[in-house]
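Quiz preparation item.
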């Protein structure tokens, strides 16, 4: 009986036999070749449906694979999964009662003594108090997707059950017959870390996370603010961020979101103990120990053509779903990843956007307001730089593949993209940039077209403010301007030279001096002599 039902579930699909826990299993084989914008993703994808994550407020990214759990839909093409990446609701989302039944079945399966067909059917039968026929195709489908038990993702498993054809069919059949499906028994399952090769702290539950961060469970709930209390209330002492708009002539203003000392202390612990242990793409040079703007620019020194592009509203366009995906990839269970995401993202209250100063085009201002109104990486948080790099690892992989296909080099410093190589001129450059734009848009970001630059050898080639025509050097105008300021400070005193009204003019000059010294130590020595002549008394 069981065999016949399972065989019927496999009708009308191409399949080959596969051994799984001693039983004859079947798996789907349809593959589809990707196009040029799929460079860096293996060139092919499996055309299957993907399901949103079930953590409230956040959805699992399509590329997420939990260590020890390899759902096949995780390898689907991003173009197929854009609804998931945007965090949309799944079309098969049912009622609260139906979801509770799916949760009960997921608990029963994860509590089964063995991740195999018969034990899973038996476990579901105990949960329902009966063994209806739709359990067989349901379990068959689950084993087709999850080769191992997703012990750190029980809510994801519940969402898969809720959206499955077998479960939806059973619900509809019961409704038409005037019956109902109910749970007879609910298993409890302990939270656990997913297996991971990374050297990150093991945190299995919210209690352990609170202990790890040195706060009480109540304080953790307050700091994570997953209910968006801060966004829905007027300014007050309980808010976790203060806000400062920076006016930029001719451009949209920039919003600094500065965390409170308590929040900053917690975020620094997350950065120091968790985020620094996670691997990055080699193309990333910003906010990475041992790398800098100099190392990123050096990759393009002496190139025939240099193309530089800029990502618009970079931090604000990294949504909570991407951040949640980073923590899930690190092996943290859903509840812990959800809390860590709440600690590291923020949704700006409407009254902050209403106070946006003038500047920039209407389109740019609306795009910025929309980005900051949702949960995003706050610019001013100590965790945001590292998480921005981690959240765009796939962007870096795809752009690196796109560049390699054209024989070009690629680096990224924060939101600054740089490419260099031969033959990137005229129509070839336009085609290349169009491919970059498609990849960037496909991953949820936008290019700032006003900052796109194409520079040949006959022009000044600049990457992150450094000239790379012949080696890496500080821009001559920048050097001469700083030298003149230091000379005037030494001759006439520093107080009359602070025309930009910097709060700490001495620290400002030291920062600019250190920048030159890091790029060109010999030229930095000359400027250091001028600085040492300044009388700051």
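Solution:
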């Amino acid at each position: 009986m069981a065999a016949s039902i399972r065989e019927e579930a496999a009708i009308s699909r191409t399949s080959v036999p596969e051994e799984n826990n001693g039983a004859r299993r079947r798996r789907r084989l349809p593959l589809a070749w990707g196009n040029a914008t799929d460079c860096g993703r293996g060139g092919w994808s499996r055309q299957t449906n993907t399901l949103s994550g079930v953590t409230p407020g956040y959805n699992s990214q399509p590329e997420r694979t939990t260590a020890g759990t390899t759902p096949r839909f995780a390898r689907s093409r991003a173009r197929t999964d854009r609804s998931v990446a945007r965090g949309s609701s799944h079309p098969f989302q049912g009622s609260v009662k139906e979801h509770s039944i799916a949760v009960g079945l997921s608990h029963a399966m994860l509590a089964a003594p063995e991740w195999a067909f018969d034990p899973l059917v038996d476990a579901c039968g105990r949960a329902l108090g009966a063994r209806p026929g739709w359990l067989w195709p349901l379990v068959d489908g689950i084993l087709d997707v999850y080769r191992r038990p997703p012990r750190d993702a029980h809510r994801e498993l519940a969402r898969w059950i809720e959206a499955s054809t077998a479960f939806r069919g059973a619900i509809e059949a019961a409704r038409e017959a005037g019956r109902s499906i109910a749970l007879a028994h609910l298993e409890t399952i302990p939270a656990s870390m997913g297996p991971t090769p990374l050297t990150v702290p093991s945190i299995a539950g919210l209690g352990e996370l609170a202990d790890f961060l040195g706060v009480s469970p109540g304080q953790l709930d307050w700091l994570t603010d997953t209910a968006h209390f801060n966004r829905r209330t007027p300014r007050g002492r309980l808010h976790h961020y203060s806000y400062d708009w920076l006016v930029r002539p001719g451009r949209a203003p920039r919003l600094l979101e500065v965390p409170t000392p308590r929040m900053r202390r917690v975020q620094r612990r997350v950065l120091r103990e968790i985020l620094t242990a996670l691997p990055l793409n080699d193309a990333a040079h910003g906010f990475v120990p041992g790398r800098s703007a100099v190392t990123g620019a050096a990759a393009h020194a002496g190139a025939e053509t240099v193309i530089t592009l800029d990502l618009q509203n970079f931090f604000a366009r990294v949504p909570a779903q991407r951040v949640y995906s980073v923590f899930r990839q690190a092996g943290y269970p859903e509840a812990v990843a959800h809390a860590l995401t709440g600690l590291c993202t923020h949704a700006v209250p409407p009254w902050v956007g209403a106070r946006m100063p003038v500047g920039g085009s209407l389109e740019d201002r609306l795009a910025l307001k929309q980005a900051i109104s949702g949960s995003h990486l706050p610019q001013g948080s100590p965790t945001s730089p590292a998480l921005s790099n981690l959240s765009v690892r796939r962007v870096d992989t795809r752009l690196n593949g796109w560049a390699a296909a054209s024989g070009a080099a690629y680096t990224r410093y924060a939101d600054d993209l740089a490419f260099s190589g031969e033959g990137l001129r005229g129509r070839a450059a336009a085609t290349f940039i169009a491919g970059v734009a498609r990849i960037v848009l496909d991953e949820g970001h936008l290019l700032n077209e006003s900052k796109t630059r194409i520079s040949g050898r006959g022009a000044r080639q600049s990457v992150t403010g450094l000239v790379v025509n012949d080696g890496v050097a500080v821009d001559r105008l920048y050097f001469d301007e700083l030298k003149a300021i230091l000379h005037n400070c030494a001759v006439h005193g520093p107080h009359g030279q602070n025309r930009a009204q910097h709060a700490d003019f001495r620290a400002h000059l030291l920062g600019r001096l250190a920048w030159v010294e890091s790029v060109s130590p010999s030229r930095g020595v000359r400027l250091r002599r001028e600085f040492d002549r300044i009388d700051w008394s």
